[in-house]
Amino acid sequence: MERRGCRSKSKKLIYFLNFKIDSHILVMIYKYRKLSKNDNTQNLLRNGELFFPSPKKLNDPFDSLISINVDELSNMEIDFYLKKIQNYLIVKGENPGLINSILSSYKNNKQKLPGLIDDNNDDVVNQKIGVFSSSTNWDNLLMWSHYGDNHAGVVVSINEKMILKNHPYLIAGLVNYPEDNKPPILLPSMKDEQAMYNRFFYKAKDWKYENEFRFINDLQPTDLLRKIYCKDPIEEVTVGFNCPLIEFTKVMEYCKSNSIRFFQTKKVPHTFLIDRVEI
């Protein structure tokens, strides 16, 4: 039997390639998933496959899409953004003359600039970036209900150090939930590391219950590469107390044959807590 307090310790951290912003002692992270008819869950369990969806596929419409406050930008910073947009549109194959005409009209009308800059940034982010979300604990009742199929699903315990060992280019860290519900600012003068942190590691405080730890993959030119593979990243699997017997048996047999610790949750009497028992 495993008590609620026995979980991995965690501390705010973030890695940018080989750039370390904070110390950390987090080892285990937890992915809540449905079991029945879910290919991503089966591929994670059996193949060590991590799927990185585009931010536009996530359930938070604000995720990773922070607006630029144009009022805080100097003319030089506005020119910087317009140049970036120009280069991006040229790469997409747009007509250079038409691009220059459009950008000139926007530069002379500052009220239109936020939409242009945000639309361009969002387009780039959604095409290039992938997000793998997880939690720092396995016994979160809301997470079991929202992502674990109302306690009929599974929590996969993953060694985050193993993921970073296999894929050191990934950006990893804990998500922040500001009490004032205001995202951090983004400025052209920021270093890439700080800009990435501000954009991808802040969410509204309503999401705080998730205790999210995420990996960002910014090296994805195609949907095919939204999937990465890790060797032996899974250390434990926990099924919910509502897990159907047929799914329970399949997962248990797989875990036993691959030397993965297997648990099932149970309600703790006279409390609103859950515990888990190793099987």
Computed Rg? 22 Å
Helix content: 25-40%
* Category from helices, strands and their pairing: alpha+beta
**SSE order in H/E notation?**
EEEHEHHHEHEHEHEEEHEE
What does this structure look like?
A hairpin with a 6-residue loop joins strand 11 (261-267) and strand 12 (274-278). Helix 2 (75-91) packs antiparallel against helix 3. This protein is an alpha+beta fold. The strands form three sheets. It has a five-stranded antiparallel β-sheet with strand order 2-1-7-8-5. Strands 3-6-10-11-12 form a five-stranded mixed β-sheet. A two-stranded antiparallel ribbon has the order 4-9. It has helices spanning 39-47, 75-91, 96-107, 113-128, 141-146, 160-166, 192-200, 245-257, and strands at 14-16, 19-20, 28-33, 49-51, 130-135, 154-159, 171-174, 212-217, 227-229, 234-239, 261-267, 274-278. 32% of the residues lie in helices and 20% in strands. The chain contains eight helices and twelve strands.
